[in-house]
Design goal:
With 242 residues, this protein is mostly helical. It contains 11 helices and 5 strands. Strands 3-5-4 form a 3-stranded antiparallel beta sheet. Strand 4 and strand 5 form a beta hairpin. It starts with a helix and ends in a 12-residue tail after the last helix.
């Protein structure tokens, strides 16, 4: 039977889940809550039921803390328009493409997502390069395949419409390709997924462990992730029957 103490700690668990930058090593109370979850199956099951009702999956790690991911049907799941406020419909495809490219650049091979000891480091320019290659490859394939999804092609055209960063510019622009990537990376950093560690190549980013969990969920759900992951490589089209 669940006690009033359990109810209080489930509430604290929820509160700590909303503070993604915190870790058990930095907070005695978070360490206690995480230890309860990992050491008391009944308490863990009660927490899981509460979060499952909200359409949330919970991952708990003694080092990384509480990591929560929304399922596709959850009312708490963020959409592209929620990530960048006042985004126009034409901009949302760019937001989605940047998010996918950040994931692909941080974890370019699927087995790296399963490696908890790997520290993923990447730069803003490396994400821009990933998107440029993907967009150009898609443009080439779409010219060869008349049945290609026009909406998808149009989304990548939106990326190519953004101007490249100006060499030797005194100030960074939020309206060019590097600026779009930095904007998303900063949002991911605020949400506890990335840390900014330098200015090399427009910005050097380190993925926090919780980003690995998010990318793992993304690779399971998103066909677009596979598309971003595959496009930089040569694409072989099926032969046409004579």
């Amino acid at each position: 039977m669940r006690s009033s103490t359990d109810d209080v700690d489930i509430g604290k668990f929820l509160a700590w889940a909303g503070r993604p930058r915190e870790t058990p090593g930095r907070s005695e109370d978070l360490h206690r809550i995480v230890s309860r979850y990992l050491g008391e199956p009944d308490f863990a099951a009660a927490v899981d039921r509460v979060f499952s009702g909200a359409g949330l999956d919970v991952r708990v790690d003694g080092r990384d803390g509480i990591i929560v991911m929304a399922r596709h049907h959850s009312l708490l799941r963020l959409q592209a328009g929620d990530v960048v406020k006042r985004a126009q419909p034409s901009q949302r495809s760019v937001i989605g493409a940047v998010l996918l490219a950040v994931a692909r650049t941080a974890y370019p091979e699927s087995e790296l997502v399963d490696d908890p000891d790997r520290v993923a480091v990447f730069t803003t320019q490396s994400v821009v390069d990933t998107l440029d290659r993907a967009a150009q490859r898609l443009a080439d394939v779409s010219r060869e395949d008349s049945d290609f999804d026009e909406d998808l092609v149009e989304g990548w055209r939106r990326w190519l419409d953004l101007p490249p960063a100006r060499p030797q510019a005194q100030r960074r622009s939020a309206g060019d390709r590097a600026g779009a990537v930095n904007r998303i990376c900063k949002l991911l950093a605020e949400a506890g997924y990335l840390n900014l560690r330098g200015d090399t190549d427009g910005g050097t980013w380190i993925a926090r462990p919780r980003f690995r969990y998010a990318v793992a969920a993304l690779t399971e759900e998103s066909e677009l992730y596979s598309l971003v992951n595959d496009l930089p490589e040569p694409v072989e089209l099926d032969p046409v029957d004579p």
